[in-house]
């Protein structure tokens, strides 16, 4: 079942890299906070590296000015997410979340089969906005699209 507006974020443990791999739960990420979570099909891939992540890097201060935390997630490991964050000059405070086994992606029903491209199971491109762990906005892109999940589109949608 695909997550929808009004649903609670499921309880899953993800990973980040800081002095080694650090587990972080969805309760820690979303509890008592306003959070935009955007998913990319893969770190270092063209649209993700040229448009999706850079848009959130550029608009990070705009989200923070509204009291909104920003997190990026991908079905990649924590080492890849950390290397990508450094390469993309991700600001301190923006979470780069590794869903290495796709547990969160499956739990919210937004997985996509990228095996024809040699990438295995990945997450669809989407952005969601949650308040205290409840989804208030969800934009899932059609395959090959990049519109509704951009930083500008999310800012406009939650204004």
General description of the model:
The strands form three sheets. This protein has a five-stranded mixed beta sheet with strand order 5-4-3-8-9. The chain has a two-stranded antiparallel sheet with strand order 1-2. The radius of gyration is 14 Å and the shape is globular. With 159 residues, the chain is an alpha/beta fold. Strand 6 (111-113) and strand 7 (121-123) form a beta hairpin. It has a single domain, classed as 3-Layer(aba) Sandwich (Glutaredoxin). The two termini are 28 Å apart. The chain contains five helices and nine strands; from the N terminus they run E-E-H-E-H-E-H-E-H-E-E-E-E-H.
Trace the largest sheet across and list its strands: 5-4-3-8-9
Low-confidence stretches: none
Overall 3D form: globular
Summarize the main sheet: 5 strands, mixed
CATH superfamily: Glutaredoxin
Report the structural category. Answer: alpha/beta
Number of domains: 1
The CATH topology comes to: Glutaredoxin
How many strand units?
Answer: 9
* CATH domain class: Alpha Beta
- Terminal Cα separation, in Å? 28 Å
Helix content: 25-40%
CATH architecture: 3-Layer(aba) Sandwich
Give the number of helices. 5
Strand fraction band?
Answer: 25-35%
Average pLDDT, rounded to a whole number, is 95
Run of helices and strands:
EEHEHEHEHEEEEH
Cα-based radius of gyration, to the nearest Å: 14 Å
């Amino acid at each position: 079942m695909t997550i929808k507006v009004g649903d609670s974020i499921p309880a899953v443990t993800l990973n980040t890299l800081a002095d080694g791999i650090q587990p972080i739960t969805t309760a820690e990420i979303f509890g008592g906070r306003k959070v935009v979570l955007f998913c990319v099909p893969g770190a270092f891939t063209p649209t993700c590296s040229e448009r999706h992540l850079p848009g959130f890097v550029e608009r990070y201060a705009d989200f923070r000015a509204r009291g909104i935390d920003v997190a990026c997630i991908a079905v990649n490991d924590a080492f890849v997410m950390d290397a990508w964050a450094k390469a993309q000059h991700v600001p301190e405070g923006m979470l780069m979340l590794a869903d290495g086994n796709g547990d969160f992606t499956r739990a919210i029903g937004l997985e996509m089969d990228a095996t024809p491209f040699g990438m295995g199971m990945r997450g669809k491109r989407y952005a969601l906005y949650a308040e205290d762990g409840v989804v208030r906005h969800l934009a899932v892109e059609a395959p090959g699209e990049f519109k509704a999940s951009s930083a500008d589109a999310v800012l406009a949608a939650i204004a």
